[in-house]
């Protein structure tokens, strides 16, 4: 693998007022972000928030409607081919060639970049080892499990030794073992100096992998920062989850609201945000309330996400 040595403060990707319109619909509404070399950055947002539109503009496959966008200091409007030669893209859905073997998928893709045949053969072997598919090199793509296909898609995106990797929901549908293997490989890429930009619906994935996050809702960036900083800014240290009979829920909400930073009433439970979940529970019991069951947990990125984007389902 290539060791990218330029300074970490080198700006690889930058947008100012980036906008994308589809007819009358504005999918991306003037967002700003900056990514430096070697960072692992995540875009989070509900369906329809504008994440995929943003990723397509970054990948230089969809023109922007307004604002500024630069990759490696280049404008994709007039340097798209040069940019694409330096990036790797893992799309949301695997688009491997089912008529080719595992190894041939890498080999043919490398030739599309105009790389020498000898180099592509060596690179394919290296990447198969990297994603632990060496023993499946001659297997048909259709014989692979979902996790194997995802790893092969990641390997294919690395054929041209990209400086910037774009990963659109790379672990959706994978079992925990496959997800963790993908995570480990992404950690290795970051350690080698590759810049990574991720979209995901898995909050634990974003919290585990990303240095910084941009939370997008309705085409706008509504918050940004490290996972820990976002949790610290938008949540209390702990969350008390309580389940009570439906008729007692209003009493719980009223009692908790006296001292809690925030109270969310859900159909099946009440979430009480407080710096000490145990003290919040003691306060409920002091008011004569005894929940059916309780859970005190650390506040998470999911709490931040739901606070900023809401709990309503978006289609």
UniProtKB/TrEMBL annotation:
GO terms for cellular component: plasma membrane. It is a peripheral membrane protein. SMART domains: AAA. Residues 13-243 form the ABC transporter domain. Signal peptide: none annotated. PROSITE patterns: ABC_TRANSPORTER_1 (PS00211), ABC_TRANSPORTER_2 (PS50893). One of its GO terms (molecular function) is ATP binding. It is found in: Cell membrane. SUPFAM superfamilies: P-loop containing nucleoside triphosphate hydrolases. Gene3D superfamilies: P-loop containing nucleotide triphosphate hydrolases (3.40.50.300). InterPro entries: AAA+_ATPase, ABC_transporter-like_ATP-bd, ABC_transporter-like_CS, ABC_transporter_ATP-binding, P-loop_NTPase. Keywords: Antibiotic resistance, ATP-binding, Cell membrane, Membrane, Nucleotide-binding, Translocase, Transport. GO terms for biological process: response to antibiotic. Belongs to the ABC transporter superfamily. This is ABC transporter.
């Amino acid at each position: 693998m290539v060791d990218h040595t330029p300074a970490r403060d080198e700006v690889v990707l930058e947008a100012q007022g980036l906008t994308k319109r589809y007819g009358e619909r504005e999918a991306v509404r003037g967002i700003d972000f900056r990514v430096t070399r070697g960072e692992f950055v995540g875009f989070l947002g509900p369906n329809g928030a504008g994440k995929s539109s943003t990723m397509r503009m970054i990948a230089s496959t969809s023109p922007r409607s307004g604002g500024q966008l630069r990759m490696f200091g280049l404008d994709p409007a007039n340097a798209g081919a040069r940019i694409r030669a330096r990036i790797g893209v893992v799309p949301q859905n695997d688009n491997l060639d089912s008529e080719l073997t595992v190894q041939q998928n890498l080999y043919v893709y490398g030739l599309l970049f105009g790389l020498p045949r000898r180099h592509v053969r060596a690179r394919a072997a290296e990447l198969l080892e990297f994603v632990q598919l060496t023993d499946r090199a001659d297997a048909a793509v259709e014989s692979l499990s979902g996790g194997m296909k995802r790893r092969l898609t990641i390997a294919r995106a690395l054929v041209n030794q990209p400086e910037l990797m774009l990963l659109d929901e790379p672990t959706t549908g994978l079992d925990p073992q496959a997800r963790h293997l993908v995570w480990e490989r992404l950690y290795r890429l970051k350690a080698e100096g590759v810049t990574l930009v991720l979209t995901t619906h898995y909050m634990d994935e974003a919290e585990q992998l990303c240095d910084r996050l941009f939370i997008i809702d309705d085409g706008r960036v509504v918050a940004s920062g490290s996972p820990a900083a976002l949790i610290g800014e938008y949540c209390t240290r702990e969350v008390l989850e309580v389940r009570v009979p439906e008729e007692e829920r209003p009493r719980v909400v009223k009692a908790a609201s006296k001292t809690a930073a925030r109270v969310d009433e859900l159909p099946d439970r009440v979430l009480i945000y407080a710096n000490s979940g145990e003290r919040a529970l003691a306060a409920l019991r002091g008011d004569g309330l005894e929940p059916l069951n309780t859970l005190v947990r650390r506040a998470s990125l999911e709490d931040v996400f739901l606070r900023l984007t809401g709990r309503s389902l978006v289609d």
